[in-house]
Amino acid sequence: MSVSGPASAEEEVAWLRLIRTPQVGPATFRDALRRYGSAADALADMPRWHTAGVAPPAGAVEREQAAAARRGVRMVFLGTPDYPPQLAAIHAPPPVIMVRGTTALLHRPQLAIVGARKASAAGGTLARRFAERFVAAGTVVTSGLALGIDAAAHRGAGPAATVAVLAGGVDRPTPADNEDLAEAIAAEGALVTEMPLGHNPLPRDYPRRNRLIAGLSLATVVVEASARSGALHTARYANDQNREVFAVPGSPLDPRVEGCLSLLRQGAGLAISADDVLSAVFEGGQRTLALFEAEAPPLVGEDDAPEHTVADAVASLLSLTPVDRDVIVRDVGHPAYRVIAALTELELLGRAVTEPDGRVRAALPEG
After folding, report:
1. What is the pTM of this model?
2. CATH of domain 104-292
C-alpha cells in the first residue's frame, strides 16, 4: 500500500491539520491514513483514536499556506511527483516537507556530510574537499547548516549544489552565524524542513532534522564527531534506513574523532578520500534511486498492528536506564522495521532518547 498525495486543496488542508496536531508524528499519520482512508475522515474521528492533542483549525493551516506562498516556500506532500523518492522510501516519511529554493535539487543523488560543530581546521578542509569532489561527480551535498563540518560541506559544494536541512522553519535558519550562508543556499540550492513557518528550533527538533538528512541521502559521511555528537544520530538513522555510512578516521588521541572511530568499529565504511565513497555507492551499485521503491517497508503485511499500538508497546518497555535496541526488538514481539519506526516516532515526539552508543531510554518528563 503506497500513499497517494492530497488530490485537492481541501485535502491538503486536512493533511496539514493532521500532521500539525500535537503528538501526531509521521508514523501515527500513516496509521491514521491507513485506517480511515483520508486525513479528513481521521480528523472527524480523532476524539476516538487520539485524545492527546487537538488538531489546529482549518484557518490556522490556511494562513500557514498563504504565508508560505508569499515567501516562495513550497509545501511538498508525500505521494506527489515533487516529493523526493529517496525520502519516500524511509520508515514513516514526513507527510509534508517545506522547501525554500529549488525542489528539483531534491531529485538528484545526494550525499550527506556531517560532523562536529567545533571542528578542527583539518576537519573543515576535509569536509570542503569531499564536498567539492562529490559535486564534481554530479551529486548534491546535504547537511544540517550547523557550524563546523556542516558549514564547511555546504561551502565546499557551493550554494547551487547543496541542500541544507533545518530543525526550525525555513524562514528561521539557525545558527545566526550561518544566516548569510542560508540565504545563499535558498537563492540557488534548497532549504528543507518538516517544521512549519516561524518555528524556532527546540532540542527535540534536531532528531527530525538528522533523520531528514539521512533519508534524503544515498549515503552519510561523518567527518569528526565526538562520542556524543549529533552526527552519530544521523549515522544511526542512515543505518536504520539501510543507507550507507562512512567515517573519516583520525588519531585516537583526538576526542573529536571518537565517534568516527566508534562507527568504524561498528562496520561503517572507511572514507580516506571522497572517491572511497563514490566508488562504493555508485560503481558498486549498492544504492540507486531506482531501488528505493522496492526497498520501502510494507505498510500492510503479516504484522498489521496499528502504529500507535506498536509505539505504546515499545514505550512500555522503556525506562530511564538505556537498553540496546536489539533487546527492544526481541521483547516487543513485532518485526524489526515496525519497532524501528516506533522508536523513531517516540523520539520525534520527545518520548524517547537515543544515547550516542545507540541504546534507548525513556525521555525525562518535561518540567
Report:
1. 0.85
2. 3.40.50.450
